[in-house]
Amino acid sequence: MLWRGRRQSDNIEDDRSDSGGGGIGGGGGQFQLPIGGRTGGGGSIILVILVVIAGWYFGFDPSAILGGGDGGLLPGGGGQITDNSGGGQDSSAGSPANDEMKQFVATVLAETEDTWTGIFKSQGLTYEDPKLVLFSGQVRSACGFASAAAGPFYCPGDHKVYLDMTFFQQLDQQFGATGEFARAYVIAHEVGHHVQNLTGIMGKFDQMRQGMSEVDANQLSVRIELQADCFAGVWAHYTGQKGILEQGDFESALNAAKQIGDDTLQKKMQGYVVPESFNHGTSQQRQTWLTRGYKSGKLSDCNTMSGPL
Ligand SMILES: [Zn+2]
């Protein structure tokens, strides 16, 4: 990706020096999700799922956010991610390599801002830029306390994307999802959740989810996740039109989508798959929707809420 020298976003909050430890915001140790406080049990479960979903599909361990027991998003996922030894405390946080990574993240974020501002404007809407919080090890968000073990996530409660950049090493080394554009896809996926939040899709998801069984909720979350992938594809479509994609870039994003499919991760971690537990989509589905957004560049082609996936 020809990102060097391009605009870098001002919406980066660098919390890497701040451990962010202690209890969860406001709840005094008891995990309170903003929605839960307002709307009772159902809503808070939804936000848990949203944070888990938004959070992160690379074997991220929801208990790292939810503070609950084990049984994370993907069997064994947490352990796999948490081999980050000590919550992603990257001693080289201020290192030149890390600052280069920060510049890359700031540039990709700026590219998402420009693209979504244009798309929203074309629909007579105003795009609100999300903030992207860089953290090391652990962080407090409006969705609760999270550690690097959770991987990147989007919190609808404060409209912020949370990223511990050591995750990119795991993406590369653990999931075999190499290449800069695989990392750009990660950020564009989270921004896809922000677009869902701004357009009310997440709110509708919340309503639809009320009273649903876990299996049905999982299927619904797959639809939310695949749409975020499709939105990442829409962003890649316009990024390609700007002439800043290089040979193989989109393929590295496609490979990342493949490596993080629920079926691929479950097979890798436990040797078998439990389809009713899928809440991100299979490798095939993720590649299909990422490609659909990339090929058409149209939001209207990202309707995952109805019909076959
Ligand atoms: Zn997601």
General description of the model:
- Strand 5 and strand 6 (160-163) form a beta hairpin.
- The longest helix has 28 residues, at 214-241.
- The protein is of the alpha/beta class and 309 residues long.
- The protein has one domain (12-301).
- 50% of the residues lie in helices and 8% in strands.
- Residues 53-54, 57, 189, 193, 225, 228 line the site of zinc ion (ZN).
- Zinc ion is lined by residues 53-54, 57, 189, 193, 225, 228.
Average pLDDT, all residues: 83
Bound molecules: zinc ion
The DSSP helix count reads 12
DSSP helix fraction: 40-55%
What's the Cα radius of gyration?
Answer: 18 Å
Number of domains: 1
Notable characteristics:
single chain, 309 residues, two-stranded antiparallel ribbon, 50% helix, binds zinc ion
